[in-house]
Amino acid sequence: MRIPSLRHNLVTSGLLALGGAAGFLFQWIGTPLPFMLGSLIMAAAGAMTFGDRFPQGYSYPLPFRQLFVGVIGVMIGAQVSPDLLTLAPKLLVSIPAILLFVVLAHSANYLIFRKVGKLDRATAYYSGSPGGLLESIAFGEDAGADIRVLTILQFLRIIVVVAVLPFAISIYEGEPVGSAAGLTTSADPAIWLDVVLVMLFSVAGVWLGGKVKLPASQLAGPLFLVGVATATGIVDLNIPGWLVASAQVVVGISLGLRFVGITRRMMISGLGLSLLSGASMLGIGAILSLIVARLTDFSLETLIISFAPGGVTEMSLIALSLAANPTFVTLHHLVRIVATVVELAVVRKMNWFAP
C-alpha cells in the first residue's frame, strides 16, 4: 500500500478541519445532521472550485474512511438489544415491501432517464438502480453504458437524498431533529476505554466483514460483531457525541469529494435528473412506508428512513443521529442492496442491454 505524501496528508487534514468548522457553523444555524451536511457542502464546493489544484493523484485515504464507516457500524451495533427479536413477525410485512420498492423505484428511474433525460437504454437502466453502486458501474460498462453519466447520476442521487431527507423529517416533526437538537448516543459519560474499544471493534469488524464477504461489509461487519457482543451482555459501550460528529465529517467529506472533475454544465444537467429521480423514489418510499405503518406499529419516521434510497452508510448514520432504530434501518438497506444486486446480475445474465 502506497504511503500518502506529506502534501496529500496536509490536504486531508485541511479538509477535515474545514469540514469540522462547517459542521459547527451548520450546528449554530440549526440544520439537521450539521456535521455531515456542512462537511459535504464544503467539500463539494472545494472539489468543484479547487479540484484541479489538488496534488496529482490525490484521493481521500480509503483506510481512514473504512475506519469511520466501521465506527458507524459499531455505534449501530451498540444499539442492539434482545427486544429486537420481537420485531421479527412484523418484518414479514416490511421486508417484502422493500423488495417491491426496488422494482418500482428502478422502473420509475428507467422511465425518467429514458423519457426525460433521453439516455440510451443501458445508461438509463444502470443509472437508475436504487443501490449496488459498484455493480451498476461494472455491469453498465460491460453493457456499453455511458459510465461518466451513470456515475454522476448515481452519486448525485445519494447526495440529493442525504441532503433532502433530514430537512424533510425536521419539517414533518416541526422542530430540529437528531444532532441538530443536541442528540447523543448515550446519556452516560464515555471514558477513553470506550473510545479505544470502538476503534478496535471497528478494525476487527471491517476485517471480518471483508473476510466473509458481507454486503456493505465495512459497515455490516462491525455492526454484527458488536451487535452480538451487546445483545449477550459482553460489552456495554458509551459512545460520545463528538465521535458521532467526527464520523459525520469523515463521511460528508468523502461524499463531497466525488464532485472533483464535475463541471457546472454536467452538474446542472445531472442535478435536474437526480432531483426528479430522488423525488420519485422518496415518494414511492413514503407511500410504502405509510402502508407498512398502517399494517404494523412501526414508526413512520423510521420507515421513511428505511425506504430512502441513499447509501447504506449515510442512511444508517442519519438513523443513528435521529435515534430512529438504526439497526432496523440498516437491515432494510442491506436487503435493498442485496435485492438490487441480484436484479442487476439476473438482467446481465439475460443480456437484455448488450451493446
Quickly list its features.
355 residues, mainly alpha, 14 helices, 72% helix
- Rg from alpha-carbon coordinates: 20 Å
SS summary, helix count: 14
First-residue to last-residue Cα separation: 36 Å
Helix fraction, binned, reads: over 70%
Basic shape: globular
> Low-confidence parts, pLDDT < 50 over ≥5 residues?
180-185
Counted beta strands: 0
Q: Percent of residues in beta strands?
A: under 5%
SSE succession: HHHHHHHHHHHHHH
Give the averaged pLDDT, no decimals. Answer: 83
Structural class: mainly alpha
> Sheet with the most strands?
none
Explained architecture:
It contains 14 helices and no strands. With 355 residues, it is mostly helical. α1 crosses α2 (34-50), α3 crosses α8 (192-211) and α6 packs antiparallel against α7. The longest helix is centred in the C-terminal third of the chain and has 32 residues, at 264-295. It is globular, with a radius of gyration of 20 Å.
Write the layout of secondary structure elements.
Layout: H1 6-29, H2 34-50, H3 62-77, H4 88-116, H5 121-127, H6 133-142, H7 147-173, H8 192-211, H9 217-231, H10 241-256, H11 264-295, H12 300-307, H13 312-321, H14 326-350
Short description:
By secondary structure, this protein is mainly α. It has 14 helices and no strands. Mean pLDDT is 83; it is low at 180-185.
